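FAQ: What does a ligand-bound record look like?

Like this one, built around zinc ion:
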Amino acid sequence: MGLIPDKQGSKLGSTYFEVTDIQKNFRPLHKDATSVWVHSIPAVTTVGLDGQPHQIRSYATEMCVSTSRSGVGCRPCTTKDPLWDKLDQKSKTNRKGLRHDFGKKMVHLLPVLNLTTGKAELLKGGNQLYEGMTVWLTSQPEAGQDLRRCEWGAWKTGKNMQTKYTTTRMDATPFTITPELEAEAKSVLERGIADMTPMTAEAFAAAITGGEDLPVETPALPAPAPAPQGLTASNTAAPGHTPVQHAPAPAPAAPPVPPAGSDVLTGFSAWLQAQSEFSGAGMFDHLIPILQKHTGGVNYHACTPEQLTTLKAALSAKLDELRAKKA
Ligand SMILES: [Zn+2]
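The answer part, i.e. the structure of the complex:
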């Protein structure tokens, strides 16, 4: 199974680490989190004829599957919100005050050992939950940039929109990840990503209109992007927002202006996808660690041609190593 599942709507149901108002401790099972962009479809409430508030749309989320800054291939990136006029002011615009539709945020996924239950679970959260871990990780010398070195505690305070997530680092203690635990870690991450499978076109149209009969044309999506293109980096990506296309007709997304070096990128993507060692389990074992080392995350689309050359050299070295082992 790839990072982006093939079957639309399949929800495998991962096991999640629940952050509560009481501190609970965990041990990371991966060096760093895997990060994805997730769009929000804000809830919409209006006042009905009876003077009472009526929720006409529920809150929902949708993983961003675009492979480029233009949002090509992602429905929320390329669809105007039909209920945008009815949103509260805060949901209408981005931090720069510009209109945005279905804004997106980084979500981080880290397999952890829950030290209370003794089970592998997935710690899923935004930048705030991961801030402490990110700060510590980036303060370490490169060889020590591994979250598995320490135990961590996590808790939350406040409620609803005011909820604040905090983590605290414990002393480093020796810890061995057994092959069983490693397999569990891989499984909770894969299932967690599968839980975010994009909706079908019909489900998305229904989700954004709240079931109202509104004219919504959502662009047809190509087959789910081959992994790991739907994923973006946690540490390198700007916190800003991908520009949304506001064409009156739902643009069968015009191809983005090719950035300089795009031939190199296209060539690199094609090469990468042809390497079977980097698909399936190999993606987690070999590809992602190298991508994280070279790009700070798992996105290579923002790399310069020079960085891609270095990345390809590192990946080729890994391939040589893997093939030598097999031979
Ligand atoms: Zn998107």
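Follow-up question: can I read anything off the structure? Yes, for example: The beta strands are 24-28, 34-41, 44-47, 53-57, 60-63, 104-114, 119-125, 150-157, 164-172.
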